[in-house]
Design brief:
The complex is a heterodimer. By secondary structure, chain A is mainly alpha-helical. In chain A, 73% of the residues lie in helices and 0% in strands. The longest helix of chain A is centred in the N-terminal third of the chain and has 41 residues. By secondary structure, chain B is mostly helical. Helix content of chain B is 78%, strand content 1%. In chain B, strands 1-2 form a two-stranded antiparallel ribbon. Chain B starts with a helix and ends with a helix. The chains are: A mainly alpha, B mainly alpha. The interface between A and B is large, with 85 and 81 residues.
Amino acid sequence: MKQEISYRIFKSSAVHVLMVLLAIGCVVPLLAIIFFIVKSGISHIDLDFMLHTERPPMVAGGGIIHALLGSFIVVGIAAILAIPIGVLAGVYLSEYRHTKLASATRLAVDVLQGIPSIVIGVIAYMWLVKSSGTRPAILGHSGYSGSIALAFMMLPIIIRSTEETLLMLPDSLREAGLALGLPMYKVILTIILPCGFNGIITGIILAVARVAGETAPLLFTAFGNSHLALNPKEPMETLPHIIYKYANSPIPNWQGTAWGAALVLLVWVFFLNIITKLLTARWKVQL
Amino acid sequence: MQLTKVNRSIRVDGAFKRLLLFVSLGLIVLLLCFLWSLIALSFPAIQRFGLSFLWSMDWDPVREQFGALPFLVGTLSTSFLALLISLPFAFAVAVFLGVYYPHGTASTLLRYTIELIAAVPSVIYGFWGLAVLLPMVRSMQTSLHISPAGYGIFSASLVLAIMIIPYAASLGASMMLMVPAHLKEAAYALGATKWEMIQYVVIPYTRSGLFAGVLLSLGRALGETMAVTMLIGNTALLPKSIFDTGTTMASVIANELGEANKTVYTAALIELGLVLFVVTIVINILGKKIIKMAS
């Protein structure tokens, strides 16, 4: 009897130890990745790296300025496209939450969020980049095509966070506005949106963080460019794409550039994530 | 005067509501357009190969013969192998955060870790896998007397397993946190040890939520592109073992769509995208439904 009890207690503690070990095991790959990227990348980052574009294969050095600016422009335009649509849809989902259209839209947003990024890339490529038959290409390989593909991926995140934030606002707020004779649009624009501002901003930053590292939708859209391109009508290089391109190349100085670029991208994405984390903690918003 | 002002405000109000409606409707239309254009653009391939597209092994752009079996096998084997590797870890994290240490520094740190694992871009996982994991897999293969290719389904699954831990883990943890305290206390009062309580209270109570987490992880794994493409070797042959090279649907699209110059070739690649789209949608909707029912 006593033996059986001590066996059960032993089993329980053994499982406890095993679970803790396995959970700690998850930390190892993350630390390994951070350690390795920092170790290999830090030696390549200097002023030359930040201010120059690609060098020919056998010339030492080379930088990522074209990819860095390209990423900012492509993600920036994607945000400009996705924010108004995302916020408006989020407002609809929270303010008219019981309509049939709202539940259908909610389903659509769920589906949109689950679409693999490569499929988004395929659709953007077929719609915008490729010419079919007599129809000329709408945008071709360009920063704009990449931005539109990324905007599709940002939408569900922005919509969801806007909706969740606005749903948490008490109804008395809306009723107070309406009781004063404000039309619904003024209630939304002057009361609801300002009150939910913090949560919406946090959601937008999170959306940017999610797409900043995406490569697959950009493969056939923004395409990549060895030179500095500031006009989004041209093909553009982006940070994740330059890592992919250089990582597979046998050329040593390009490999080095890829490590540097990986470090810059990792720092940038972690920075955005930590900002989101701090804002959610500080503003007590929930995502 | 007053009345016109009120009238105008009513009109603006109507216009604003229509704008909101239009945007929401637009999202649904957008999604239907996605589906429609995937079907329409892959139609040449559907028409020509029919269902045999899914079980033919021949992928030859020159002779315009397209069969997706090697890619289906590649996608399924990498995803399920990754799932198998990641599940014990994801479960451990869920139990750690949901039962053993719901509060405190350790749990906050682990929570951050899990979020950062989800935040690391896929291409960085791929690059790290190329530089760090491949040499390790190679030396393991040498000691097992297999040809040390490094690239292959096994390496891709390893990296994929790390990448999908967060999805099942965080959902599982939040489900376990929702188990009512009185159920747990009842188990303790009956003399259950901690593990017995987890076994007989927490797991049965959260079963459907845990299953949904597994589904969402699987959905992520099926569609993951960059890391897998960089590690799997990209050969359009049926893999014979987990150490063989292979390729997945997403990888083939990533590698070949830009160069596909014939209509049927492009259509075949888009049909792969269509398959991926439909499968991930079904998995995601199913997962979300289960979550909604569980919570």
